[in-house]
Amino acid sequence: MRKVTVSAMLAALALCSINAQAQKYGNSEQDSVDCLMNNSLYQEFYKQKDYKDAYEPWKQVMEKCPKYHVNTYIRGYNILQGVYKTASSAEEKEKYFNEMLSLFDQRGEHFGEKWNNIARKAQVYEAYKPEEYETIYKLYKQAAELGQDKLNQQYCVQYLQATIKYLNAIKASNEQWSDVFDVYDYASETMENSLRDASNALDSVTQLQDEAQMKKLQKEVDNTRNNIQALETFIEPFASCDKIIPIYEGRFNSNPNDLELLKKITTNLERKKCMGSELFFKATENLHKQEPTPRSASLMGQMLLNKDQYSEAVKYLEEAEKTSTDLATKTKSAIALAQALSKTKNYSAAREAARRAVNYDKSYAGKASILIASMYLATAGENAAWAAYDEAARAKTLDPSVAADAQRIMNAAHGRFPKKEDLFFKGVNPGASVGVGGWIGGSATVRAR
What pTM was estimated for this model as a whole? Predict the structure, then answer.
């Protein structure tokens, strides 16, 4: 493989002599000279993917000037992976493995985000010692506890995976499996908040027609949705109601007034749409009796909605939306209120509630449009069918996750379109815009079967 040339070395030394005067990278001027020289030297080898020869000068940079640049750590991990791969003994491999762990400790110390660097240590174990299930799980747990909602989304997903692997490895009991739902709840809430913030920001820059920011934020929204989907995929085998309920049922029966337990039960049963269960009813009622809050009122409303007690549900949901200062609770209350009002055929008020939910959190735009399209479809007349089709098509573009529901509404609406010849006799052409009238109002696109 091509080695560093003499001219490149001379250039590096010249660079050092100039820059050492301008900036001090280590504890002394000599440290600065050594740092800059070794930095240039290891990068020449690094560009050639000659990790063996890059290793020693890179180590010198780490020793003399650990705060020089974050790229020292990013490239350093690649160098260590390279020399690990070609190591000739188990002892040598163990040395490089431990240096990888130390690398991320140092990166966290000198460049912050200790939580993400703890998670990177978990990734090192996953790559080289994947059977260390407990260590990997505990590292991700430490990262999550330290970073809270700042932990990188990919590590949130991997935390859930690591928890599942660990619990499987120790043949966990039902009670121990409740840990997986605590992790799922943490990761879901973190990502839902990220999605809400990114969606709301995207809406703002869209109105300003800031193309660069729109592209950046759309990518963030898409990535977050993908991570949420990955999270749902990993939890799915464990998250059916008949599996979740037994995990919490025994604990609830033993201590039905434990506030922390009640919060966990209601949160996780709500997330996995197990709100029709008796456990959810009891836990929600106990929670609201002991600690009435806007969130517990919202859960009461959702519980009554699932019991088909729509008028009672409306009271709780209106209270929750009005009194909550938490955007997540306001949004969930408003969308559930829209569902309850639609069941009582109070379509106009239901539509307003759905639109308020979108004002709180733009990531609900697709779900709200599906609900509105369903109400249009339930309204008599071909104009209503056209409006339902338009709204469902809009939902499909707003949120890919509701595409199947949107298509079902569009198919049903299509079945109510008049034939082309009927439109001809009415003097209306397909593609024209017509007023809808009634409670729906606005206009819709004329379509034929």
Answer: 0.72
